[in-house]
Amino acid sequence: MNKIGFNVLAWSAVVSDELKPIIERLKAIGYDGVEFFVGSPDEKAYREIGSFASQAGLETTTVFVLGPDENPIDPSAAVRAKALDKIKWTIDRSNDLGAKVICGPFHSAFSTFAQRSPTEEEYDRSAEVLHQAGDHAAQSGITLTPEALNRFECYLCNTMDQLIHLVKKVDHPHVKAMFDTHHANIEEKKLGDALRKVAPYLGHVHISENDRGTPGSGHVPWDDTFATLAAIKFGGWLTIEGFTRNDPDFANSIGVWREFSQPWEMAENGYRFIREMGAKHGL
What we know:
- There is one protein chain.
- This protein has an eight-stranded parallel sheet.
- It has ten helices and eight strands.
- It is α/β, with parallel strands linked by helices.
- It has helices at 20-29, 43-55, 77-97, 120-138, 160-170, 181-187, 191-198, 222-231, 248-253, 263-281; strands spanning 4-7, 33-37, 59-63, 101-104, 143-146, 177-180, 202-207, 238-240.
C-alpha cells in the first residue's frame, strides 16, 4: 500500500507548536506522513516541527505557492530571480522539516493572469527557473513536483498535457509532476487517461474531492482513479488536501467561503476511504 499523508492546511497555513497535537492524532489514525504549507517566516519552527513529526513516526512533505512579485514566468529577470530565491528558501525549509517531496503550483504565480493563452516563452522561463531550483533541491535529496491547477487559479498549467510539456522542458531528475484529483476533475476529460499520460513523470498525488471536502463524499471518479494508479504502479504519496475555514486568511486567499467538511471528519473518514480503495484495486 502506498504511503498516506494529510495536509494540515485543513487547520493552519502556519508551521508552529499548535500543530503538535494534530500531528500526534494523525499518527494515531494511521497516517504515514503529514504535509505542511511553507510560508511562515519563523525558520526555527520548521526544524522543531520536523523533529517533532519524526519523533512521532511521521514522514513529511510540503506545499507552497508564489506571488506575483516572485513569478517564474515574468518578463523581468529581477522578478524571476526573486522566484528562484523563494523556491530555494522553500527547499531549505522543507529540508528542515525532513521532507523529500515539495508540491504546488510554483511553475508560475498563483492566481496571476495575463488575459491570454500561455506562450512558449513563458514555458521556457518557468523551465529555466525550475531547472536551477532542481539543482538546489538535489543537494538535499528533494524532488520538486509542480502542480497543474484549474483555470480559475492559473493559466500556465491547467492540464497534464501542459504540465508534461513543462516538465519535459525542465529536463531535471529532481523535477517531476504532480496530480491533484480536484483540479483534474475540472480540467481533464477522464482522470484515468490523464494519469496514464503523466505516469512516466508522476511524483506526487493529492487525493482531493471535487468540493475539497472528505474524499469519497463527492463525485470524483474514484474507482477509475485508484484502478489507474494501481495499473501504472504509482508508488508515491497519496496525500489528502482538503480545505476549511479554520485559517481564515488562507481560506480567503483561495476563495473558500463555506465549510465543506470538518478537519477531523475529513482526516478520519478520508484515511479509511483511501485504505478501502487501495485494497479494492490492489494499490
